[in-house]
Amino acid sequence: MMVREAGLEDIPELIARAKSIHAHSVHAHIPFHDDDAAQVFGRAIALDEGCVLIGERGFFVGQLSPFHFNLSALRLVEMGWGGGDAKEIIQAACEWAKERGAIEVAFGVERTAKTAALLRLFRMTGGVPSCLSVVWRV
């Protein structure tokens, strides 16, 4: 299977993949709710600005959003991704965004043992690290 746009019939598989990735992430302390995940995936599939991609092992969910101070400049902002097929998922997300007039695709990277490898992959596929997110647990 190549990376393709997901449909509503893919939601159970997307939830299973997201749940598995979440369990091994730095956010594992936050409870995972299947019903909430189903809503996130369902909305992204239904909305014109939503993007849900599925591959052999991986997935991507994101949404087109106006750039900070230029409402006509769109970027595809990742809301969740992972599970394998990373290079293909990145390329498919970039193509999807480009076809819809976006000028950027923004992926998040969690600090894990795989961070350096992910950053190498991002650079290899044309990505440029642009910022650092800092999270406070409250």
Q: Which tags fit this structure?
A:
five-stranded mixed β-sheet; 5 strands; 138 residues; 36% helix; 4 helices; alpha+beta
Radius of gyration: 15 Å
Detail the poorly predicted runs: none
Strand content: 15-25%
- Spell the H/E element sequence: EHHEEEHEH
Structural class: alpha+beta
Shape: globular
**How are the strands of the biggest sheet laid out side by side?**
1-2-3-4-5
Q: Provide mean pLDDT, rounded.
A: 88
- Given the structure, what is the number of helices? 4
Please provide the count of β strands.
Answer: 5
The major β-sheet equals: 5 strands, mixed
Terminal CA distance: 41 Å
Approximate helicity band = 25-40%
How would you portray this structure in words?
The protein has 138 residues and is of the alpha+beta class. Helix content is 36%, strand content 25%. It has four helices and five strands, in the order βααβββαβα. It has a five-stranded mixed beta sheet, sandwiched between helices. It is globular, with a radius of gyration of 15 Å. The protein starts with a strand and ends in a 14-residue tail after the last helix.
